[in-house]
From TrEMBL:
This is Lambda-crystallin homolog. The keyword Coiled coil does not apply. It comes from the Eukaryota. InterPro entries: 3-OHacyl-CoA_DH_CS (IPR006180), 3-OHacyl-CoA_DH_NAD-bd (IPR006176), 3HC_DH_C (IPR006108), 6-PGluconate_DH-like_C_sf (IPR008927), 6PGD_dom2 (IPR013328), NAD(P)-bd_dom_sf (IPR036291). PANTHER family: 3-HYDROXYACYL-COA DEHYDROGENASE FAMILY PROTEIN, LAMBDA-CRYSTALLIN HOMOLOG.
C-alpha cells in the first residue's frame, strides 16, 4: 500500500483502550491519529505504544504483516481535535465512560468531519441512542465495543443506533475484519449488548451457588476455567449443544430441553451483590487472592501472559 492511499483513522482518548485500538489499527496498515484533551497525553501514549509494539515484535507476537518500525511510523499524536480529525474516514472514540462527555465529544466532532465519516464509540455500558443523542446525522454512528485487552481478545461487538445505515455497519465490519479483530453484529441495541448480558447470567448463577452454600468460590471458578472455559475458547454454547447430541441441535433439545427448562426454572431472583449476603463471598475470595495491589497485579500479569499464549494457540489452530 503506498502512503497516498493509506486510510486514516482518528482515535479520540489515549487511555488503555485508545492505545489498544491504535495498536490494532496500525497492525492492519492504517494511519492512526491519536487525540487526547489532556495536553501531552497523546504523545505519551505513543511512547507507551512504541515500547509495547517493540516488545511484541521481540516476542514474535506482533500482529499484522508490517514490521514494528513501519507500524509505528503510521502513528501521530495531536492536542488539537480538528487537526486530529483531518483526513480521517473513521473515528473511534475512547474517552471516559461518562454519558455527557461522550455526547459532547460527538457533537463537536460532527461539525468538523465530512458527512461520510463514520463515528464509532468504544462504550461498554451506554446504548447508542444515548451516546449519539446530540448528533444530527445518526445514520453514520455506531458502537464498536472491544474486550480488554483487544490485542489478544479479538471480539468486537458492533451495535447500531436505531437510525444507523446498513452500509455503515458493513464498512465497520470490513474494517474490523481487515485489522484481524472478530466483529459480531447486533441487529438492535440492548442494555449490556451481548457479551455483558451473557457474562451477567454467568456471574448471577455463580454468585447464587456460592451464596446458597452449594459450592466454594475456588471451585465455581474451576467449573469455568477447567470445564466450560476449555470449550468456550474455541466454540460457543450453540455449537457445543449441536455437537453434544448424535443428530445435532434439534436432537439435543429433544433429549435435554425439558431438563434444561426444569433447571432454569429453579434459578432464583437476582442475588444480593452488595449487602450482608455478599460479605462472606468477598472474604472467601480475598483469602484466595488478597485485594492489595501486589497480589492483584501479580494475578493480572499472569492473566495477560496466559491470554497471550492462548491467542497464539488459537492462531495456530493446532
Ligand atoms: N478498560 C476496559 O476494560 C474497557 C473495555 C471495553 C470498553 N471500554 C470503554 O473504552 C472507553 C475508554 O476506557 P479506558 O479504560 O481506555 O479509559 P481511560 O480512563 O484509560 O482513558 C480515557 C482517556 O480519555 C481521555 N479523555 C477524557 N475526556 C476526553 C475528551 N473530552 N476528549 C479527549 N480525550 C478525553 C483521558 O485523558 C484519558 O486519556 C470507555 O468508554 C470504556 O467504557 C473499556
Ligand atoms: C448522513 O450520514 C450518511 C452515512 O454516512 C451519509 O451517507 C449521508 O450523506 C449523511 N447525510 C447528511 C445530510 O449529511
Ligand atoms: C432428565 O432428568 C430426569 C430426572 O428429572 C432424568 O431421569 C433423565 O435421565 C434426564 N434426561 C437426560 C437426557 O439427561
Amino acid at each position: 500500500m503506498s502512503s497516498s492511499d493509506t486510510k486514516v483513522i482518528t482515535v479520540i482518548g489515549s487511555g488503555l483502550i485508545g492505545r489498544s485500538w491504535a495498536m490494532v489499527f496500525i497492525s492492519g496498515g492504517y494511519s492512526v491519529k491519536i487525540y487526547d484533551n489532556q495536553p501531552g497525553q497523546s504523545a505519551k501514549a505513543i511512547t507507551e505504544i512504541r515500547k509495547q509494539v517493540e516488545e511484541l515484535e521481540e516476542a514474535h507476537m506482533l500482529r499484522g504483516e508490517l514490521p514494528a518500525a513501519q507500524q509505528l511510523a503510521l502513528l501521530s499524536s495531536y492536542d488539537d481535535l480538528a487537526q486530529a480529525l483531518e483526513g480521517a474516514y473513521f473515528v473511534q472514540e475512547c474517552v471516559f465512560e461518562q454519558l455527557e462527555v461522550k455526547q459532547s465529544i460527538f457533537q463537536n466532532i460532527e461539525h468538523v468531519v465530512g458527512k461520510d465519516v463514520i463515528l464509532s464509540s468504544s462504550t461498554s455500558c451506554l446504548v447508542p441512542s444515548k451516546v449519539f443523542s446530540k448528533v444530527q446525522n445518526r445514520s453514520r454512528c455506531l458502537v464498536s465495543h472491544p474486550v480488554n485487552p483487544p490485542y489478544y481478545v479479538k471480539l468486537v461487538e458492533l451495535v447500531p443506533h436505531p437510525e444507523t445505515a446498513a452500509a455503515v455497519m458493513d464498512t465497520t465490519h470490513v474494517l474490523m475484519t481487515k485489522v484481524g479483530q472478530a466483529p459480531v453484529l447486533l441487529r438492535k441495541e440492548i442494555d449490556g449488548f451481548a457479551l455483558n448480558r451473557v457474562q451477567a447470567a454467568i456471574i448471577a448463577e455463580s454468585w447464587r451457588l456460592v451464596q446458597d452454600g452449594i459450592i466454594s468460590v475456588k471451585d465455581i471458578d474451576l467449573v469455568m476455567s477447567e470445564g466450560l472455559g476449555m470449550r468456550y475458547a474455541f466454540i460457543g454454547p450453540m455449537e457445543t449443544m449441536h455437537l453434544n447430541a448424535p443428530e445435532g441441535l434439534e436432537d439435543y433439545m429433544k433429549r435435554y430441553g425439558e431438563n434444561l427448562t426444569r433447571v432454569l426454572t429453579s434459578f432464583g431472583p437476582v442475588p444480593d451483590f452488595t449487602g450482608e449476603g455478599s460479605k462472606s463471598i468477598i472474604k472467601e475470595m480475598c483469602e484466595l487472592i488478597p485485594s492489595d495491589q501486589n497480589h492483584l497485579s501479580a494475578r493480572k500479569e499472569r492473566r495477560d501472559r496466559l491470554l497471550m499464549c492462548l491467542a497464539k494457540q488459537k492462531k495456530e489452530d493446532c
